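User: Hi! I have a protein structure encoded as tokens and I'd like to know what sequence might fold into it. I'm fairly new to this, so please keep things simple.
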């Protein structure tokens, strides 16, 4: 349901963030799991706390509100943690917090979140207002919440590393749109790219067939042969049996001799693998312009 509404409202890459918000709001329980009753998008039910009695409608309203906050906060990607913190505190507070914080400090700070809460409580004559630590509370449940990501090619490798140990790849091939299991190595690479905002920005294509990924990189002039020494974040393509490319993964690191990759559908799992630079099974590399 969350995925459906995230796609509908244009924030499909923020699905994990919306799940984290719901965990903080309700643990995913009750008839108003996003606690959207008092929010601006509730047009059907009472505006009292827990006024919404339809979980589907609650999620729809909550996703619209998260989308609105992300837009206001000018979030660039699901790893843009400073703007995500601003958007989350805005989701919790409402009442113009985001524009106020940007004007005052250029964005979210722990100090301004506390000050805004005190000011609003005083203004309304309440003992407290909102959750001063809301971003930290939500980010406990967010897969990328503990990282302060740099920019560029290290981002996709960190996203991929979070998935190591996944078996069967359903998360990735169902996200892609398949109803049943497929060979999911390319779905995994595409999913990781989407989590970083790279599909939306045109940095990496969404592809399920290995050959179509190669064609895309070649058409952009972003292809390197197997003899190339790759960098973290490069997309590595393999040819196991000499019959054409049949597998793909993400380069995590390379010391000039050995390449460490993270791959989906490696014996039906996400796992790290190691190869020699220029090794016989390597077909070549797609080089995204991060």
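Assistant: Happy to help. Inverse folding works backwards from shape to sequence: for each of the 290 positions I chose a residue that suits the local structure. Here it is:
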């Amino acid at each position: 349901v969350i995925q459906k509404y995230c796609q509908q409202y244009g924030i499909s890459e923020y699905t994990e963030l919306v799940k984290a918000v719901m965990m903080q709001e309700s643990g995913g329980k009750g008839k108003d799991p996003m606690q959207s009753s008092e929010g601006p998008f509730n047009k059907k039910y009472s505006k009292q706390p827990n006024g919404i009695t339809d979980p589907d409608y609650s999620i729809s309203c909550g996703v619209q509100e998260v989308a609105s906050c992300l837009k206001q906060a000018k979030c660039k990607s699901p790893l843009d943690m400073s703007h995500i913190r601003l958007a989350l505190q805005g989701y919790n507070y409402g009442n113009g917090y985001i524009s106020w914080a940007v004007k005052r400090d250029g964005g979210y700070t722990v100090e301004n979140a506390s000050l805004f809460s005190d000011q609003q409580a005083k203004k309304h004559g309440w003992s407290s207002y909102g959750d001063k630590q809301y971003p930290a509370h939500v980010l406990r449940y967010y897969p990328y919440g503990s990282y302060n990501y740099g920019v560029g090619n290290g981002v996709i490798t960190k996203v991929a590393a979070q998935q190591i140990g996944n078996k069967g790849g359903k998360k990735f091939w169902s996200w892609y749109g398949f109803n049943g299991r497929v060979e999911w190595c390319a779905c995994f690479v595409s999913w990781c790219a989407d989590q970083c905002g790279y599909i939306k920005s045109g940095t990496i294509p969404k592809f399920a067939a290995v050959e179509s990924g190669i064609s895309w990189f070649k058409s952009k002039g972003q292809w390197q042969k197997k003899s190339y020494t790759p960098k973290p974040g490069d997309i590595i393509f393999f040819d196991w049996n000499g019959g054409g490319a049949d597998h793909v993964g993400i380069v995590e690191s390379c010391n000039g001799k050995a390449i460490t990759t993270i791959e989906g559908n490696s014996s039906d799992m996400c796992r790290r693998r190691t190869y020699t630079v220029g090794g016989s099974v390597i077909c070549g590399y797609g080089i995204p312009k991060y």
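A useful reference point when you look it over: The CA atoms of residues 32 and 58 lie 5 Å apart. Feel free to ask if any position seems puzzling.
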